[in-house]
Every structure is written in structure tokens, then in C-alpha cells.
Amino acid sequence: MSYGQGGPSWGPGGPGESRTPDWAALAEASAARGRRRKWLLIGGGALATAAVAAIVATAVITTNGSSSSGSDKNASELPAPAELPSESSAPEPSFSSVAPPPPPDPKDYIADEKKDRTPVTVDAFFPGKKLTMGDRVYAKGATARTSSCATTTQGALGSILDSNGCDQVIRATYSKGGTAVTVGLAVFGTEAEAKKAAQQASGGIASLSGAGVPTFCRGGSVCRRTANSYGRYAYFTISGYTSGKNVTTSAKDVYAVGDDLTDFTFRQIRHRGEVQASAAAGAPAA
Fold first, then answer.
1. Which of 9, 125, 140, 286 is deepest in the core (most CB within 10 A)?
2. CB-based contact 187:233 (threshold 8 Å)
3. Which residues of the chain have pLDDT under 50?
4. φ, ψ for residue 171, nearest 5 deg
5. Three-class SS of residue 48?
6. Closest to 172 in 3D by CA, of 146, 148, 200
7. Distance, CA of 210 to CA of 174 (rounded, Å)
8. CA angle 275-175-269, nearest 5°?
9. How far apart are CA 173 and CA 138, in angstroms?
10. Predicted local confidence at residue 280, as pLDDT
């Protein structure tokens, strides 16, 4: 009688006969049990390895999650500006809190004789031998300069100049195609005096003939007169025909010559202020 795998095997004589073990069967059963233990050990090791891998993966995920959450800090958790490193060790630039003085006003230098120090001459205001205004060219005639202001006028203008403190008068005559104009530049000590003289003007500046220009605007002929002031200068014009013909409101050529000399004289006075203001701005501080 024999048993299944793993049990003892007896000889053909049965249990009552001589009992000799079946050593081959016993060896095979022992080998089988060894193989089962080996596979159990291999299986257990694989499970243990998988468990360790899972633990490591979990640790990696946990670590990465912690790092990610750390990068999402609120702005309030960031270092304060004072704790951040300085980008440069160089000193910061400094600026003066004192505003620079404004540029000089050119009119300040022609409004009062205390500042208007440039010499007053005929050539300073009426240079050259001719005057070009646009497409119109005027020949310069006679010029004159005097400190006897009243002698350069007609009518009441002389007394007006004197009563307002006139220092001197410069006259210059220009002509073109039968028309002529004399401009008289009266110089005062202050802007207020010049302005008052121009506002009170009555009569007018006397025409100045000579240097190729015949006598004009005398003897009762009707001529055009103007009066203006800028700074401490009052300037007057008288314009008309050299033929003695009366000027009417339709005499565009006479109006043109008078307006051109009025505009030119104003520009010359203003330029005088600009030159002196520019010189003062470029001068070193005291």
C-alpha cells in the first residue's frame, strides 16, 4: 500500500512484513518541500520590494507637494523690502531742492534806464542805408539825434514829451516811390513815463527832410500820424507824399510805409532787451 506524495512507502509485504523505507520517495518529498519554501521566500521578497518602492514614491510626492506649497506663499509672507539685498552699493544721486532762477525777462532791460545800459545811438536803432520789409525796400534818408525833445515835434507833442521827462529824441526818414515817413524815438527814464507820453500824444513828430528826401508833411498838408510805446521808449511816425498831396484812408502805400516803420522800430526796441537779457543770463553769478 502506498500514500500520496510526501507520505512513506512500504514494501509489497504490507505492514506486517519487514518495514524498509522508500528512500527515493522521501528524498523527492523533501525536495518538493524545499522548492515550496524557496518560492515563498521569493514571493515575500517581491512584495517587500514593492512596498518599499511605494513608500519611496509617497515620500517623493509628499516632498514635491511641500515644495510646491512653499512657492505659493502670499505676498505678506515674502521678505520685507528692507530685507532684500541691495542691487548696488553706489550712492544714490542727490538733487538740489532749490529751483533755478527763471530766465531774465527781456522787457525788464528796456523798462528802466537803471538796467538799460546799452548806448542809445542812431545806428543802434536804424542801421544801414536801406530797410527791407518783405518785398518792400525803403531808402534811408536823413537822421538826427537831440536832447531838446520839444524841437523835434509839431503841435502839443513837444510839451507832452517834456512834461513826462523825455531825455532825447532820435529821428530817421525812409522813402519809397513818392512816399516818405519820419519815425521819432523818444527816450524816457521809465516805462510809465513813455507810456503816458504816447497815450497823451497830440500833434506829432516833425518830418525830417534831406539826403535825397524833399520836405514833406509841412505847410498844412494832411499826413498820417501814429503814437506807440514799448518799455521806456515812445515812438511816433508821420508819413505822407513827397509831392505834398493829402493822405486819405485809401492811400495804401502811405499806410504801408508808416506801418512798416512802426513795426521795425518796435522790433529794434525788443531786440535791444533780448540782447541785454541774454548777456545777463550768460554772466557768472555774483
1. 125
2. yes
3. 1-18, 52, 56-71, 285-286
4. -120, 150
5. helix
6. 146
7. 10
8. 15
9. 10
10. 86
Q: What is the pLDDT of residue 11?
A: 43
Sorted by sequence, the CB contacts under 8 Å of residue 200 that are 6+ apart come out as 160, 164
First to last CA, the chain: 140
Place of cell 508833411: 217
3-state secondary structure of 11: coil
Cell 515835434 locates to: 153
In the block, residue with C-alpha cell 533780448: 274
**Cell triple for 201:** 500824444
| DSSP-H helix ranges across 138-228 | 157-163, 191-199
pLDDT at site 89: 61
Nine-digit cell at 235?
A: 515812438
In the block, residue with C-alpha cell 512798416: 260
pLDDT, position 104: 83
Question: What pTM does this model have?
Answer: 0.65
Question: What confidence score (pLDDT) does residue 216 get?
Answer: 97
Q: How many CB atoms lie within 10 A of CB 76?
A: 6
Helices (H) and strands (E) in the chain, counts: 5, 8
Kindly write down the DSSP assignment for every residue of 151-171, as one continuous string: GGEETTHHHHHHHTT--EEEE
Total residues belonging to the chain: 286
Beta sheet of 136-146, edge-to-edge order: 130-133, 136-146, 168-176, 179-187, 233-241, 224-230
Helix (H, G, I), strand (E, B) or coil at 250: coil
Query: How high is the pLDDT of residue 227?
Result: 98
